[in-house]
């Protein structure tokens, strides 16, 4: 559908009344993410909706074909920029699958804890922003305050609040700080407390509930056919969670539930995300108890892992190894692999093709919210214009990820 | 795990399955492009396979191979918990015949994925209801993920200012040179590189 162009210089301005074309976006204050929805309206009812994405396209996949395998990490940070750690871990696991590497146990627990922290921040942002777009500003501030506590921990660990670039092939950039467990233990109850406060404000609010209930309803079968995954799919009652269905890292050793919805409406998506925040806390609690305090964080494969800095400065072998790894990149065996993890929005997949050199031949990311956003038009057609705001908010479209 | 899927495909389609492998545990079948839709229909409808979740669709460009484009599809079955990767090779070096039948009728989620594959790699899908560009803008020329598309090429919608227009010297540099930033000893795509 073509966007409506109106020449405002013409003396008489005649707008077609029925059906009326309306451009919502690309930058609309009531929508998060840069996306345009071209609407055909009859009164306030949406007859047809055309969702147009791509405003944040930065050629991620093309850029990856130019650097080394390790240089992809900063790019994946900027895909889903509210949970970059999950992207980092997902990409590291994909390359490790291609190399046939397994990281030490301590690193697996560490990745899980950081990943679940990122998941909390992802869900807090989504739920908070959606509430704000419906006019509930206070819970948004509380959720963001809680998110800031998550980011404080991540900053302490990685040195960056948001774009950590912390993953490495075969491990992590640095081991956990001495106080890591203490920080998590101190912050998590506070985060949960803030979540509960915000939840109380929203879930007893008639206006909020009325705008969410039975809005943007989708059946489980339709959601699966659209390729939906993650909290949006689980809100329809399909309990597909990669952490349970195909456990990676140590997810098969921890105890957690998969919250599912019943009706598949916007309220269910909101509640599923809140449920997942609590489950993430459960996972982190168990992982903290079980993560060893000592032991290696990187695997000891000199083909991919950088040597110790002290050795680089004192021995010629380590200097050469360092030089080769940085300048030529780690050589990844020839082949193709598809690796998938549970990202903030659902199945985050990487399809990697290697020609055996230090540069990826093809990096294909499967961003979960691309297909979720693809289903938006079917959710809003036949509904009122104002229903777009909560429906779109609850899908959690992240521009960087959706537009590659 | 699901060598079963590949066996079942071979049993049903025989010689239309060109090659299969299960490297790294990913079951992969390369199929005859003419059978693309038939295989997809079978994968969706066969009760023992029941591939209901369209995971991903993309294309990988091998400019020195014939056919050149490899269209890669990933599917998952929520009920059976198995996956399969389907590949079809299409198109000659000028992208002639880079066409497949659309499978949007089987999985509605393929709509956007096929548009993206067309936009990024230039593979057409016959029978797609609305094959427009999705990530790039309509005025964009070419398909950026083809290896022959230069990585340093820019197509600004609003032309860069000239020095005359700006009234002062502009020291604006190109974003990067064709080989800039590439790892040591590695050059961009050349025709005689054999992969």
CATH class of the domain at 3-136 in chain B: Alpha Beta
Low-confidence stretches of chain B: none
Sheet with most strands of chain A:
3 strands, antiparallel
**What's the CATH first level of chain A?**
Mainly Alpha
Assign an overall shape of chain B: elongated
For the sheet with most strands of chain B, the description reads:
5 strands, mixed
Secondary-structure element order of chain B, N to C: HEEHEEEEHEH
Number of helices of chain A: 17
Average per-residue pLDDT of chain A, rounded, comes to 88
Q: Please tell me the CATH architecture of chain A by its name.
A: Orthogonal Bundle
Question: Main interface pair?
Answer: A-B, 54 and 44 residues
Q: What is the strand tally of chain B?
A: 7
Question: Strand-residue fraction of chain A?
Answer: 5-15%
Structural class of chain A: mainly alpha
Order of helices and strands of chain A: EEEHHHHHEEHHHHHHHHEEEHHHH
Q: What distance separates the N and C termini of chain A?
A: 22 Å
As laid out across the biggest beta sheet of chain B, the strand order is 1-2-5-4-3
Tally of separate helices of chain B: 4
CATH topology of chain A: Cytochrome-c3 Hydrogenase, chain B
- Give the strand order of the largest sheet of chain A, numbering strands 1, 2, ... along the chain: 1-2-3
Description of the structure:
The complex is a heterodimer of chains A (404) and B (195). Chain A has helices at residues 60-64, 73-77, 84-99, 105-133, 137-158, 180-203, 206-212, 220-225, 230-234, 242-245, 266-290, 309-314, 316-327, 368-374, 376-380, 388-395, 399-402; strands at residues 20-24, 36-42, 45-52, 167-168, 171-172, 335-342, 347-354, 360-366. Chain A is mainly alpha-helical and 404 residues long. In chain A, a hairpin with a 2-residue loop joins β2 and β3 (45-52). Chain B has a domain at 3-136: Beta Polymerase, domain 2 (2-Layer Sandwich). Helices cover 19% and strands 21% of the residues of chain B. Chain B is elongated. The mean pLDDT of chain B is 83. Chains A and B meet through α1, α8, β6, β7 and β8 of A and β3 and α3 of B.
